[in-house]
Amino acid sequence: MICLLEEMRKQRLEEIKSLREMGINPYPYRYDKEFSSAEIREKYDPVLKAGEVLENEKVSTAGRVMSIRDHGKSAFFHLKDQDGRIQAYIRKNSVGAEKYELFKKYVNVGDILGIKGFPFKSKTGELTIFVEDFEILSKAIRPLPEKWHGLKDKEVIYRQRYVDMIANDESLDKFKTRYKIIRMIREFLNGKGFIEVETPTLVYVTGGAEARPFITHLNVFDIDMYLRIATELYLKRYIVGGFEKVYELGKVFRNEGISYKHSPEFTSLELYWAYADYEDIMNLTEELIEFVVRNTLGTTKVNYQGVEIDFSRPFRRVKMRDFIREKLGVDILEDPDEKMLEVLKKNGVDVPIKSRGHLINKLWDLVEEGVVQPTFLLEHPVDISPLAKRHREDPRVTERFELIIYGREIANAFSELNDPVDQYQRFLDQMKLREAGDEEAQMMDRDFVRALEYGMPPTGGLGIGIDRLVMFLTDSQTIRDVIAFPLVNPKSLDEEIDYGGEEG
RNA sequence: GACCCGGUAGCUCAGCAGGUAGAGCACCUGACUUUUAAUCAGGGGGCCGCGGGUUCGAAUCCCGCCCGGGUCACCA
User: Fold this and answer.
1) What ipTM was assigned to the predicted interfaces of this complex?
2) Is A305 helix (H, G, I), strand (E, B) or coil?
3) pLDDT, tens digit, for every residue of A267-285?
4) Which residues partner with A461 through β-bridges?
5) How far apart are CA A209 and CA A479, in angstroms?
6) Is the confidence at residue A41, as pLDDT, over 70?
7) How many angstroms separate the CA of A144 from the C1' of B8?
8) Backbone phi, then psi, for A403, in 5-degree steps?
9) Mind spelling out the 3-state secondary structure of A232-300?
10) Which of A62, A112, A374, A503 has its CA 20 to 30 A from that of A235?
11) How far is CA A448 from CA A170, A215, A460, in A?
């Protein structure tokens, strides 16, 4: 009747009780961790030969016990910390009989331990800490996944990421890389004089992208509000207000489907640069991406799902019109809708006659997978770019680009529309679509139009999907693998927890 | 939303000509002072995802549902 997990937990809870009776706090307050596993390795690995001992060097470290190899009157074990793993060696005659008994009886795989001792190298040459004293820093009451195979169950990996991080070193490393990427982005932009700002997450109207929003309620004014779907319109208000280089790194929320490249909550970088146009933004984007990749991975050549992607500048630049004409023999500016429809049908895509923009998007879908190396796709038709300025030389297209890598859109940028009258008209067009039932059409943002009426300088803007970028740099197949705590179905976990009497 | 694959011990997995459940790791007891998937001896542990059906008998066959993964569609 009683399952094994409960038996194990009960056993651990009994041990904790015994420890307390002996006057040992199984959850003490602090520990002087002088060195991380990596710092110890860095310092002593090069200077020690197999079998050598540095008895006068004293070090302390701490981490989670990942394995124990018990030899009776001595034992080897590994500690894992944020930087890696380090082996330790404990011996009855080095810590005393009483302390050694404590280790044997009360220390288990999964516990957090602090150790003090000196470094040496074992016969086989592994750097090891010879333990002279140790302290239990936290007793675990649940067992860890298997030490050899790790945790494989995707469901547990996503629902209990902390277990994944404990059991699978690659998982911890992946998230460390994610935050290094984000640090590099900040470093680059701060170095260029950009100022990191914040905009509201709770908004009265959504804008800056086409997506269905999450709706929430504000009690104090008794109104419905939305979670932002982009940071764009507020960042441009900063530009109106007098900021010239701003960026925001933050979560945006879109109430849409989940796929390997879509998450309802994801991280975006948006930046706006006054007096710049999309050419300037393109150059900045190239430089930013190369900087981030090089400083995160130490190279610009990245293996993604078995394909080498080279992030070194310059990126290829192709006009959307030329690319589609070359691949499909259809001109998205000159040819009539019927011709485009015919080409789509020939390629097995049967679409109802909708807008011209819809047909253009479908044509692009046919060819985008062929774009593997970082490529700027330029000058999208006005029909599919409601937020971008018309091109100064060809009013049928816009001053816009997308960065395509491995067939995926990583960035989107324009010379920003700053004509308030034009902007107002485009909002009106969006509202018509909305009234016709298009839930993703943009909402009228009168305050934003009012801001533009005060005058916004010519401005270039850029948006980057950070999660998708991280996927490339961590060779991750799905966006969930780069989001530490992804959205999961909250099936009820009516697991009753028994802490055994007065415990807890 | 459609189709395909999966759910068995804490973990990784086997078992599916229908006969009432196994291994390794982990855990407990014992031996062992340089191991590293340590080794050796012994032991405990299962609502076989949930519900229904067929059958003398179901982890195994059938139906429905839940959860997860994948492909496609939808969506940017």
Assistant:
1) 0.92
2) coil
3) 999 999 999 999 999 999 9
4) A272, A414
5) 20
6) yes
7) 20
8) -95, 120
9) HHHHHHHHHHCCCEEEEEEEEECCCCCECCECCEEEEEEEEEECCCHHHHHHHHHHHHHHHHHHHHCCC
10) A374
11) 45, 20, 17
Separation of A361 CA and B14 C1' (Å): 49
The pair of structure tokens assigned to A426 is 């485009």
Q: Which residue is nearest to nucleotide B1 (CA to C1')?
A: A257
Would you state the structure tokens that stand for residue A168, as one six-digit string?
Answer: 């699978």
Of the candidates A146, A120, A152, A115, the one whose C-alpha atom is nearest the C-alpha of residue A131 is A115
β-pair partners for A60? A116
CA atoms within 13 A on the CB side of A137: 18
Helix (H) or strand (E) holding A463: strand A459-465
Q: For A226, list phi and psi in degrees, rounded to 5.
A: -125, 155
Contacts with A255 (C-beta within 8 Å, 6 or more apart), sequence order = A211, A212, A213, A214, A264
Task: Give CA separation, A181 vs A311, A339, A374, A387, A446, in Å.
Answer: 14, 44, 18, 29, 36
Residues A33/A62, Cβ–Cβ less than 8 Å: yes
Q: Tokens for A233?
A: 């319109």
Which residue's CA lies closest to nucleotide B31 at its C1' atom? Answer: A72
Q: Tens of pLDDT along A212-227? A: 899 999 999 999 999 9
A354: which 2 tokens? 């909708």
Contact positions of strand B to protein Cβ (< 7 A)? 9-13, 24-29, 31-39, 44-47, 66-76
